[in-house]
Task: inverse folding
């Protein structure tokens, strides 16, 4: 009959269940939009930020502790006010979000790679290999992730000279976080792999003599990716929080190169004295970011997990 | 894992359970770090030796106004200009019940000069300590020394019999290796240690046999000390009445505390002078990457760094007015202080010109060591100076560490810094000790340029001179000051010495910070300008 492009689009959306459900859930849409906007803003920080907070020469002590621009005594040049060093808080949050996202994203990616690899071979080959890998996973899981991270940080401080440690701090954190996340990935991948291994299509592939690595990559991997996507998203929030916690405790990113956690730690020192913007804005940014990541992760879990549907 | 991170997380996580309810007249106080050791000769540091002053006692002590008063010595006199006679107090007992006699003084005089004791300069070289009878001791010096007992208020007397029975070894630097005295004490002071849990808490109780109990002014029976590294946590503990005395209070919180109904704040300048030490010693400046040159050996470069720092902005912004900029390495109130010497004016343009003249038009970089739990707003001051130096082209990226790690990097033998932020309090309240330990050439022999850890026991002068400032003229002047008995002449020599070190830009003095103590309204405390907390003068009310 009468088909407009819009109706065509509706039909196509309706044909694609995930996209359809996505558009049917306004909260998920909002979270995705918020998360995407924050990620975009963070990565465009060098263009958006009025000041480079990493450059000590750009800071002027005489501009320190200015309130947000809409408050009395605020300066229009410093939208969210300044910290005790005269650093523009808005710029610092943009750059800090970037640091947090990079740390979170990279450590989750590493964890997923390790977890996928070990989980696939453990689940597919079984036997002794499986036992060894899974015992390592069990041991690793008994340690709270924050403790693992503190331990690694302490050891690295012991063996690296101070300056080098500062330069390598971000890698130390990434290493520590990925080390604490990979066991979850490995465990899930192993379970899914064990289910897939018994399926007819895998048996058929084995019968016609396709080598094991190829079966793993071509046939099993695509079928275990769903749960991984969920775990990765939820752990992204965990990793961002982990980085913030470590930096808050003063063992993470050094104070001269703020991450969100470092900014919150600095703001914490001004809790009682009235300069509340120093903790409110970085804290809100962190909360919103983790919230939107978790909402998307939760939605993905609901959609992709057949048991919950 | 560094102990402080644990302490920090514990302190914030289990805050409510960390402080129990107060017993009768229990003084609960918190500061930022724990005491380094119970061994009174292990490390000369204001907090540790001040704390131990409640447990141990010296022959003399200081009153709240810092005047010298008798303690274990009842009185003393000069038999001749080089012979001091000390009459010891009778009827004093150590915490283990053994009596205090001249033998303990002789033993303490030996131990304080043994091993890597940090208090060696309490007894000048060549001094002889002679027992006259059980309650009289003579100190015979080679040269007349008018300020011999000025530094003795924290040279504490240890028990000979106790030390020998427990095989207490000579002190080691910073308490590196433990001996029996690291975790146990046996002093004569008004309080004895009940339980010591390093990094967690230390509890003490009043010593009933203390000789001064009859006219003790305060009423504290029990003391609980908890190190709380996080300033906001400390303030919260005070506001919620879980702590009675808290120091230091972050300067930004003073207003808020003054407005609170149940607490008060006492603030005033300290006698501690904050300064920047510049490494003029090593042939290669740490962190510079420059081969075989150390820009800081050049006086012009040191002046450039001095002029790049806007000390008034630091006072107004970082310290919120609670600091007194200083031109000297000693504070007003220290003998020999003079206001005739002025600071080099803040002048970034001149600083740039000086750097260019010295051959560094594009600046240079260096290692910059800072602490974050030792001084008032040390981390913020450190970052501010770093950004001021960046404006004249000098890259000094701060390496901010907690106390123990920080001291390890800055002190001998590593001395891994180009620039380091430190504080100094002259124990004698006289300029000589600041000249002696910070400005005299730190050598063990004329031909040895650098001392290392093994030489520590031989070092007599320049023990804290980690930057390696060395000017033979100062060495001569310092010796002359030590021997001069005429006060006017002596002060003239001191002024002369300060003029030379200022012209040399030996150090960059920053300011005297004001110390702010938060005190519950129910407690009455006398704050000493040297920041030593003397519990004898604390009165707790209901």
Result:
């Amino acid at each position: 009959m009468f088909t407009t492009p819009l109706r065509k689009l509706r039909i196509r959306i309706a044909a694609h269940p995930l996209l359809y459900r996505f558009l049917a859930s306004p909260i998920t849409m909002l979270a995705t939009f918020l998360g995407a906007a924050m990620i975009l803003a963070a990565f465009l920080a060098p263009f958006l930020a009025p000041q480079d907070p990493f450059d000590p020469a750009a800071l002027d002590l005489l501009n320190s502790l200015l309130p947000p621009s809409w408050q009395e005594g605020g300066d229009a040049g410093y939208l969210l006010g300044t910290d005790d060093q005269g650093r523009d808080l808005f710029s610092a949050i943009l750059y800090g979000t970037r640091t947090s996202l990079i740390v979170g994203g990279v450590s989750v990616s590493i964890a997923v790679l390790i977890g996928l690899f070990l989980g696939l071979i453990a689940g597919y080959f079984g036997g002794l290999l499986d036992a060894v890998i899974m015992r390592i996973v069990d041991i690793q899981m008994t340690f709270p992730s924050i403790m693992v991270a503190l331990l690694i940080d302490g050891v690295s401080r012991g063996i690296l000279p101070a300056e080098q440690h500062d330069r390598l701090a971000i890698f130390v954190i990434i290493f520590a976080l990925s080390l604490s996340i990979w066991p979850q990935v490995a465990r899930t991948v192993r379970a899914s792999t064990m289910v897939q291994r018994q399926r007819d299509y895998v048996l058929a592939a084995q019968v016609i003599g396709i080598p094991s690595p190829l079966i793993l990559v071509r046939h099993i991997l695509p079928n275990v990716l769903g749960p991984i996507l969920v775990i990765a998203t939820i752990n992204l929030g965990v990793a961002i929080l982990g980085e913030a916690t470590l930096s808050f405790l003063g063992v993470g990113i050094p104070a001269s190169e703020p991450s969100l956690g470092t900014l919150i730690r600095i703001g914490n020192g001004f809790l009682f004295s009235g300069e509340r913007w120093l903790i409110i804005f970085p804290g809100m940014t962190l909360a919103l970011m983790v919230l939107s990541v978790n909402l998307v992760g939760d939605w993905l879990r609901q959609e992709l997990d057949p048991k919950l549907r | 894992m560094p102990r402080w991170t644990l302490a920090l997380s514990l302190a914030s996580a289990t805050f409510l359970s960390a402080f129990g309810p107060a017993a009768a007249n229990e003084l609960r106080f918190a500061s930022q770090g724990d005491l380094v050791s119970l061994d009174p000769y292990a490390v000369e540091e204001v907090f540790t030796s001040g704390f131990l002053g409640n447990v141990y006692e010296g022959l003399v002590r200081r009153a709240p106004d810092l005047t010298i008063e008798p303690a274990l010595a009842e009185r003393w006199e000069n038999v001749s200009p080089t012979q001091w006679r000390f009459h010891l107090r009778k009827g004093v007992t150590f915490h283990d019940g053994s009596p205090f006699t001249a033998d303990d003084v002789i033993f303490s005089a030996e131990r304080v000069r043994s091993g890597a004791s940090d208090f060696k300069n309490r007894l000048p070289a060549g001094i002889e300590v002679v027992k006259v009878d059980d309650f009289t001791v003579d100190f015979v010096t080679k040269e007349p020394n008018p300020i011999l007992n000025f530094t003795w208020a924290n040279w504490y007397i240890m028990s000979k019999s106790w030390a020998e029975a427990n095989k207490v070894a000579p002190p080691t630097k910073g308490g590196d290796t433990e001996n029996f005295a690291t975790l146990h004490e046996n002093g004569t002071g008004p309080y004895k240690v009940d339980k010591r849990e390093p990094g967690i808490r230390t509890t003490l109780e009043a010593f009933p046999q203390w000789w001064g109990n009859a006219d003790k002014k305060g009423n504290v029976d029990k003391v609980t000390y908890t190190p709380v590294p996080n300033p906001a946590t400390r303030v919260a503990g005070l506001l919620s009445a879980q702590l009675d005395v808290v120091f230091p209070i972050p300067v930004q919180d003073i207003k808020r505390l003054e407005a609170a109904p149940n607490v008060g704040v006492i603030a005033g300048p300290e006698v501690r002078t904050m300064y920047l030490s510049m490494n003029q010693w090593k042939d290669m400046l740490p962190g510079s990457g420059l081969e075989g040159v150390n820009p800081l050996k050049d006086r012009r470069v040191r002046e450039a760094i001095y002029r790049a720092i806007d000390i008034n902005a630091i006072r107004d912004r970082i310290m919120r007015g609670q600091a007194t900029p200083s031109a000297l390495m000693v504070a007003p109130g220290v003998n020999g202080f003079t206001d005739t010497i002025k600071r080099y004016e803040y002048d970034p343009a001149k600083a740039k010109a000086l750097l260019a003249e010295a051959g560094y038009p594009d600046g240079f970089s260096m290692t910059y060591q800072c602490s974050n739990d030792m001084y008032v707003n040390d981390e913020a001051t450190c970052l501010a100076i770093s950004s001021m130096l960046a404006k004249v082209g000098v890259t000094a990226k701060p390496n901010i560490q907690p106390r123990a790690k920080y001291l390890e990097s800055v002190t001998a033998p590593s001395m891994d810094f180009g620039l380091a932020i430190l504080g100094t309090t002259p124990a004698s309240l006289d300029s000589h000790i600041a000249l002696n330990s910070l400005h005299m050439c730190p050598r063990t022999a004329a031909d040895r340029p650098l001392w290392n850890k093994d030489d520590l026991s031989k070092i007599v002068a320049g023990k804290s001179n980690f930057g390696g400032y060395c000017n033979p003229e100062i060495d001569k002047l310092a010796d002359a000051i030590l021997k001069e008995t005429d006060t006017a002449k002596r002060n003239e020599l001191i002024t002369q010495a300060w003029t030379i070190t200022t012209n040399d830009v030996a150090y960059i003095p920053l300011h005297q910070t004001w110390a702010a103590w938060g005190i519950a309204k129910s407690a009455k405390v006398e704050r000493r300008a040297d920041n030593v907390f003397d519990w004898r003068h604390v009165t707790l009310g209901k």
Summary: The radius of gyration of chain B is 23 Å. Confidence is low (pLDDT under 50) at residues 1-18 of chain B. DSSP finds 16 helices and 20 strands in chain B.
